[in-house]
Recover the amino acids of this structure.
């Protein structure tokens, strides 16, 4: 089961990219500290922006730690359509090498400079290369959106062979979504990979995480508290390394 880390640079995590040992006792945990603590031989970092890439790369190189970096992009059937949000969903694009990192930056720039952060499959296929890998995330993919939100996402994946990610964070719909993801992969001959999205270190950090999300997701006229955080689709404390270790080693 591969832990997919996300940092504060994506505004969706309370994990930082500070160097090992730089975190204060009462401060936020560093992803690099967790990588060391849990004995991981590489860091798989899936962000929503390119902002933290330079910091992650420099620290990884100093530690001689292999870095697998990906961006979770918003994509749709046709980004020029007025109703593009009706088919919007997420994909993850990983850079396989230095050239792939440069191509990932160009895709990111194109999405945000040309179409409000959107890619579509025509643009992606035209710019695709062997320096990139595509993964279908467990949450917010077209599989998720089509089956649970009745959207009409029609991906054209003929230009590559994606890996389909499957997770279990003890959410009520994880089993159903997992079965749908595995069925899609089997029908198309794609590989699946068990993963776990990591936003914080331990289950007890859920209160700190919810507080952070409330602050970064503030909406006018909508009161949010720890008793009623109103965080869409978030009702599990399993998005952490503590849970990953228990699932990875159920009988230590």
């Amino acid at each position: 089961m591969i832990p997919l880390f996300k940092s504060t640079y994506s505004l969706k995590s309370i994990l930082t990219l500070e160097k090992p040992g730089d975190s204060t006792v009462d401060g936020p945990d560093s992803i690099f500290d967790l990588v060391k603590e849990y004995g991981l031989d590489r860091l798989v970092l899936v962000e929503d922006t390119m902002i933290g890439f330079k910091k992650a790369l420099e620290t990884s190189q100093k530690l001689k730690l292999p870095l697998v970096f990906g961006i979770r992009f918003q994509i749709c059937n046709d980004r020029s359509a007025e109703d593009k949000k009706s088919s919007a969903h997420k994909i993850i694009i990983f850079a396989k090498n230095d050239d792939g990192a440069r191509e990932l930056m160009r895709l990111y720039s194109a999405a945000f400079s040309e179409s409000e952060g959107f890619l579509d499959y025509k643009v992606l296929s035209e710019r695709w290369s062997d320096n990139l890998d595509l993964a279908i995330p467990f949450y917010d993919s077209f599989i998720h959106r089509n089956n649970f939100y009745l959207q009409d996402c029609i991906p054209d994946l003929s230009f590559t062979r994606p890996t389909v990610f499957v997770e279990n964070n003890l959410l009520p719909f994880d089993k159903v979504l997992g079965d749908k993801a595995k069925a899609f992969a089997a029908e198309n001959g794609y590989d699946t990979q068990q993963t776990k999205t990591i936003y914080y270190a331990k289950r007890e950090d859920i209160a700190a995480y919810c507080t952070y999300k409330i602050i970064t997701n503030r909406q006018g006229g909508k009161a949010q508290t720890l008793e009623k955080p109103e965080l869409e689709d978030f009702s599990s404390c399993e998005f952490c390394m503590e849970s990953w270790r228990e699932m990875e080693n159920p009988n230590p």
Notes: The first helix runs from residue 31 to 37. Strands lie at 2-5, 43-47, 67-76, 89-95, 118-120, 132-136, 163-166, 192-198. The two ends are 16 Å apart (CA to CA). The mean pLDDT is 92.
